[in-house]
Amino acid sequence: MECQKKILNLTVDSKIAGNKLIDVLKDNFELSNKMIKKFDKENKIFVNSKNISLKSKLKENETVSVEIDYGINNITPENLTLNVIYEDDDLLIVDKSKNMVVHPTKNVLSGTLANAISNHQKINNQNYKIRFVNRLDMDTTGLLIVAKNSYSHQQLAKQMDEGILEKIYIAVVNGHLDLKEGIIEDSIDLNENGIKRELSNFGKISKTKYKVIEELKNASVLEINLLTGRTHQIRVHLSSTGNYIIGDTLYGETSKLIDRQALHSHILRFIHPITKEKIEIISKLPDDMKNLIKNLK
Q1: Which GO molecular-function terms appear in the entry (predicted)?
Q2: CATH code 3.30.2350.10 region(s) in the chain
Q3: What are phi and psi of 215, to 5 degrees?
Q4: Where in the chain is the domain with CATH 3.10.290.10?
Q5: What is the pLDDT of residue 60?
Q6: Under CATH, what is the fold of the domain 5-69?
Q7: What is the mean pLDDT of residues 186-207?
């Protein structure tokens, strides 16, 4: 199947007339230096349908165009359940179930969320490289964003870095917290075993904002705002305070009430990379976590 394409256009007005093309690409299209270099090399940047030097000064009423391709999907399609929450030409947002790896690895070659999305493409006659904006552990449920093109991916990654893209989780944790809301700020690094993460002065700065929304019998329900996005960040930070996520066998202990860590990607808030519309997507708490909370009351 032919690669999908999108054209971004901008008409030069009096405010930006006289500016260099490269500056307009940075300031108005918000393209990174890496993307500008790549698109220029591939002859995908145009002014009035012609390729010109990035140092050229633009004239009023000229049209600047950037051709964005969607890439080619190389993931094997598999007929797996996929819960699509939102979709347009640029984004796909899905509600991931438990016990599903997000992307194929050397140890998990099939049965992943990416295989399910590839099948969704096949059914709907689509073809784009699957670019996950955020990621979830195998047994964490909830919302995931897939960018259908490199521009949308770059814009949303930038929003994550700047704290514009909000990722709100619900977790059920062991015990009660002394502070009912706060920010856990501790660096995280990979453990020597190559699997677990741990607090480390040599790790990456990590910030987890939390708020207790309900107290149960020796357990608490937390709303968590992930301010940075390190691997296992929420799980490591909460276990470090003694309030490990119930059911988390890696950082806590097994539970008779739930067969996975009780962590759910609940809300995503961001600005659409193309339309600039404010988007809020909500995923309801899954039944296993609802039952867990009920049994802990």
Answers
A1: pseudouridine synthase activity; RNA binding
A2: 84-296
A3: -105, 135
A4: 5-69
A5: 95
A6: 3.10.290
A7: 71
Q: What is residue 72's DSSP assignment?
A: -
Going by C-alpha positions, the residue among 1, 129, 9, 157 that lies closest to residue 69 is 129
For the chain, the residue count is 297
Q: Which of 90, 137, 139, 186 is catalytic?
A: 137
Fill in the amino acid letter for 85: I
In this structure, the number of other CB atoms found within 10 A of the CB of residue 252 comes to: 19
Place of tokens 């802990």: 296
pLDDT interval class at 7 (50, 70, 90)? very high
CATH of range 84-296; options 3.30.420.40, 3.30.2350.10, 1.20.1050.10, 3.40.718.10: 3.30.2350.10
* Residue-wise pLDDT tens digits, 94-147: 999 999 999 998 888 899 999 999 999 999 999 999 999 998 989 999 999 999
Q: Based on the residue annotation, tell me whether 137 is a catalytic residue of this protein.
A: yes
